[in-house]
TrEMBL record:
GO molecular function: ubiquitin protein ligase activity; zinc ion binding
Keywords attached to this entry: Coiled coil, Metal-binding, Zinc, Zinc-finger
Ranges in coiled-coil conformation: 444-510
Gene Ontology CC: cytoplasm
Residues covered by the UBP-type domain: 273-365
Name of this protein: Zinc finger (Ubiquitin-hydrolase) domain-containing protein
Length: 545
């Protein structure tokens, strides 16, 4: 086993304001989980009989619970600095971190659930009793391990946008479940979350019920470092490579059980139950005998997968062979296969990674390998190459999955940028159209005015046309009448002229008489009246000699 380097720290009281600062680096969030500074009292180092300088005794740790039901019956110490609230509180031991690397232990004080037992998830909000002096900090207990981080984020629904930070922790003595400490941005959303999810089933197909408790404070009691972490902390999200800020668009920050922080929007796309960075999985069930529950000297049936204890315990593996005639069983501790029919270990062949030759492992060699791990050069090289190949394959799979996630992430970013550019172009076109609209509207108004003016002129012209046509008709009629009168007068004058010419000719021919000559000489020319005056002809009076 690795040497354990244990370091203990004194109790520290934390308020929700110190849960995690948005400006803190992920390494500070991972190692400190919360700020361990108290502004109200001074603390002394943990030791037997040590007392606080402010007159407050150190918190007495309750016994480790064995199930979630036991958590509700652990009272907190009466001398706790924050147990003076009107509602009763209880202390719950928790731990976080990868136990193989670093583990942080602490205690959190929760308000008791004082809601009437008759109230269920369908009860009205008026029947829910909220503790006095509560803070925007809650703890969701008893989340089943098969529920991944993405499932829990989906279960929270729209409340994920109002969560500043979520922290995954383990409750001591409970291996099949984990808990989530959540800090909200406002108290109203905290109360709505409590009313909506407390005593509500995680799924309609399961019996697991969501247990939400208001949290008074969270205290760290011990930090154990067992190995140096190979994963360096960064201020950026390992998935999207953007800075870890408590942004409402990304839904805050989620810190896994192994102290790796992600954006909630990024971890919600991770469908695996393991950590995207270190592949640590909370759900690590220990193999036990299927009959008696023994955890030592276990054998796995290679035919059906039955796990039973060896003949030096209860002998359930041998009994399984007698009942089912499954003669091959794998020893989980040494990974050797036992043949019940031959009553010995089977021969195993290992292919060398260097030259491809098959190397046989005899029973004596297997015993020697299991005891001292001392084998020949070919076998040692084959085992080493096998381990290296497994590590390389795992690394390649991890790298491939991470690159695929990165590709999807950056493709989504490109799509968002493209949509943003299209939106900006549409807005620019719309803005240009709005700028041209007044000018076009002005031209349209002028055209409408001109059209109205021309229509009025056309209407007046049509009216005047009828009047002038009537006047022209009358003028033409008068002209025709005048022409007929003139023609008639000309005809009359022509007749008179003809008669006069005939008379003159007759006088010239016969010779004029004295009286006629005298009459002509003394005659007077009288002008004829105009054509419009239709009166009789006027004859001149002859004057006597």
């Amino acid at each position: 086993m690795m040497p354990t380097n244990s370091r203990s720290t004194a109790h520290h009281t934390v308020t929700p304001d110190h849960f995690t600062s948005p400006r803190a680096e992920p390494s500070q969030r991972s190692n400190c989980f919360i700020a361990f500074v108290s502004r109200n009292c001074q603390r002394s180092a943990m030791s037997a009989g040590s007392t606080s300088t402010s007159g407050l005794d150190p918190i007495a740790f309750p016994p480790t619970p064995t199930s979630i039901s036991d958590l509700t019956s652990i009272p907190s110490s009466s001398s706790s600095p924050l147990s003076s609230s009107a509602a009763p509180t209880e202390a719950v031991l928790f731990s976080s971190g990868n136990p193989r690397i670093e583990e942080t232990r602490g205690v959190m004080h929760l308000y008791r659930d004082i809601t009437p037992s008759s109230s269920t998830s369908t009860s009205t909000s008026s029947s829910v009793i909220l503790p006095i002096g509560r803070k925007p900090l809650v703890c969701v207990l008893a989340v089943p391990n098969h529920m991944t981080y993405a499932d829990f984020c989906k279960f929270c629904g729209s409340f994920i946008q109002h969560m500043l930070e979520m922290r995954i922790v383990r409750i001591d003595g409970v291996d099949e479940q984990y808990s989530v400490i959540i800090r909200f941005d406002e108290q109203s959303f905290t109360d709505d979350f409590y009313k909506h999810f407390n005593r509500k089933r995680f799924s309609s197909l399961e019996e697991d019920i969501c247990c939400v408790r208001y949290t008074v404070d969270v205290q760290q009691t011990e930090s154990i470092e067992r190995a140096q972490s190979s994963v360096s902390s960064s201020a950026d999200c390992p998935v999207c490579l953007e800075r870890l800020d408590q942004d409402k668009d990304s839904g805050g920050i989620l810190t896994t059980i192994c102290n790796h922080s992600f954006h909630c929007s990024c971890i919600s796309k991770w469908t695996d139950s393991s950590c995207p960075v270190c592949r640590y999985c909370q759900q690590q069930a220990e193999s036990t005998c299927s009959i008696c529950g023994q955890s030592e000297n276990l054998w796995l049936c290679v035919i059906c997968g039955f796990v039973g204890c060896g003949r030096y315990k209860e002998g359930h593996a041998v009994r399984h062979w007698k009942e089912t005639q499954h003669c091959y069983s794998l020893e989980l501790e040494t990974q050797r296969v036992w043949d019940y029919v031959g009553d010995n270990y089977v021969h195993r062949l290992i292919q060398s990674k260097t030259d491809g030759k098959l190397v046989e492992i005899s029973g004596d060699q297997q015993d020697e390998i299991s005891r001292t791990c001392d084998c020949d050069e070919d076998l040692s090289e084959a085992l080493l190459n096998s381990k290296v190949e497994a590590i390389v394959e795992e690394y390649n799979n991890l790298l491939t999955s991470q690159l695929e996630n990165q590709r999807k992430h950056f493709e989504s970013l490109l799509l968002e940028i493209k949509e943003g550019n299209d939106k900006e172009i549409d807005e620019a076109v719309e803005k240009a159209l709005h700028a041209k609209l007044p000018k076009l509207q002005l031209k349209l108004n002028k055209a409408i005015e001109e059209k109205t003016f021309l229509e009025e002129i056309n209407k007046n012209l049509l009216e005047n046309q009828e009047m002038w046509e009537e006047k022209i008709g009358k003028a033409e009629k008068r002209e025709q009448i005048s022409t007929r009168l003139k023609d008639l007068k000309i005809k009359q004058l022509e007749e008179q002229l003809s008669a006069l010419i005939a008379q003159i000719e007759s006088v010239t021919t016969d010779g004029p008489t004295n009286s006629a000559v005298s009459e002509i000489k003394n005659a007077t020319v009288i002008t004829l009246p105009s054509a419009n005056n239709n009166t009789g002809e006027t004859s001149g009076k002859e004057e006597g000699n």
